[in-house]
Amino acid sequence: AFFESDAEHGRRFASCWPHIVKWLDALLVLRYDYDEQNKYALAIGEVFCICQSVIPEALKEDEVVELAVRAWIGFEDSNGQDRYTARALLAYLMVNTNYEARPIQESLRGCVVGVEDMVEKLVLRIDHSTSQSSSSSETFTTIITLYNVAVLLLHQPGCVFELSSTLKVKVTDSFASVLDFVLRIDNRKEDHLRVVRSSLLVLEGFLS
Fold first, then answer.
1. Rounded Cα gap, residues 97 and 45, in angstroms
2. Are 106 and 63 contacting, i.e. CB atoms less than 8 angstroms apart?
3. CA distances from residue 155 to 55, 88, 183 in whole angstroms, order as listed
């Protein structure tokens, strides 16, 4: 609402965007040392969502794509916790799905991370979530986020073709686990059924 109320707000955000990206990049590098409460994930997710609504094309810049992917890759903290954020990556993927979309693998060319690294993390996080003994709402929310990443990756030009056959099999195995996880939930609701339908689409997309 703040940016919709006055076009000048959006112009100011756009003028600050290059500096915001530099700060987010610098903070990401140092995150392991200072971010005990996962505040970086909240900050970058919020900033990318603002950018998505104000200047969506800026999310397609190579350095911005790399930043979103590195935030998604994340790190393991001293307690063994997987520290990452999907919101920045989701914001980028949502604006890069039209017929003019640039393949994500082109944006990541020359970077230290690639499409296979992204999907490997997706598989690991799905497997971790579906292996939980309790089908809690928090776990289910995480699974929804992860399947949103998978669905949007399917819409990225040429993305699936970049993956090895072994990794595609890992993805399909993971989403078979998602189906099993949902079917173990008592009193399933529409959200659960939506995950089932989307998981079947993901299975089809990665097997085709």
1. 19
2. no
3. 21, 17, 27
Residues 179 and 195: their CA atoms lie apart, in Å, by 8
CB 88 within 8 A of CB 59: no
Tens-digit pLDDT string for the chain (208 aa): 565 656 777 788 899 999 999 999 999 988 877 777 788 999 999 999 999 999 999 999 999 999 999 999 998 888 888 989 999 999 999 999 876 788 899 999 888 899 999 999 999 999 999 887 666 778 888 999 998 999 999 888 888 888 999 999 999 999 999 988 888 877 778 888 888 888 888 888 888 7
- What is the residue-wise DSSP string for 125-145? HHHHHHT-SS--HHHHHHHHH
- Other CB atoms within 10 A of residue 78 CB: 7
Please report where in the chains the tokens 């939980």 appear, as a residue.
Answer: 132
Give, rounded to a whole angstrom, the gap between the first and last alpha carbons of the chain: 42
Look-up of token digits 């890992």: 170
In this structure, are residues 172 and 203 in contact, taking their beta carbons and an 8 Å threshold? yes
Half-sphere exposure of 50 (CA within 13 A, CB side): 19
Q: Of the candidates 40, 16, 42, 13, which has an alpha carbon nearest to the alpha carbon of residue 27?
A: 40
Answer whether 83's CB lies under 8 Å from 44's CB: no
Q: Find the DSSP H helices in the chain.
A: 2-5, 7-34, 39-54, 62-73, 87-95, 104-107, 115-130, 137-154, 165-183, 190-207
